[in-house]
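User: For a benchmark we're assembling, each entry needs the component sequences followed by a predicted structure for the full assembly. Here are entry 17's components. Please fill in the structure.
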Amino acid sequence: AQKVTQAQTEISVVEKEDVTLDCVYETRDTTYYLFWYKQPPSGELVFLIRRNSFDEQNEISGRYSWNFQKSTSSFNFTITASQVVDSAVYFCALSEAKRGANNLFFGTGTRLTVIP
Amino acid sequence: DADVTQTPRNRITKTGKRIMLECSQTKGHDRMYWYRQDPGLGLRLIYYSFDVKDINKGEISDGYSVSRQAQAKFSLSLESAIPNQTALYFCATSDQGTSEGDTQYFGPGTRLTVL
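Assistant: Structure for entry 17:
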């Protein structure tokens, strides 16, 4: 069965600190996709990144970086030099290729608070 | 202008009332989805549609119905609202015809309160 676990319910950091949000997934498929979404206090869901199961290269986008490790079924998200605008709920999600985009399974989210 | 819009953004209604939430998109995507978000539970899929003639139930479809009036429009109805349908509802779209076809893009959400 598919499952996404975000064990950290809430994290607080002081501005400029680095923070890592953990995501562990379960799937029996060999082809799947992993995602991160951001939900700021205004409520919308913002797509951040998509990764397929064949690409384990880490990705960096500005202050954001993602570490994908199939050996530990993890897809962790690091924010470097955090800012107050990073305060949001972050969701990790999984979809399995053979079942298509209709089966997007979300974790329960991690609420990040960046204290000025 | 936003690519995916939802109306209304906020709605308060009473138990037993019929409610319709609407979603429109200008992204030209073929697939559309409805989710609900409850505190501590993440997002759960209610219904999804691959095209105008294709409607499928998601994880939690009981108490809901949908209509895909056009490729760009997908509405969610609560025939007789009940308090445990109080939640944040999201519409999403994806384009199966591209290499990024598994990526879903979300609307701003509709906050529904059933009293």
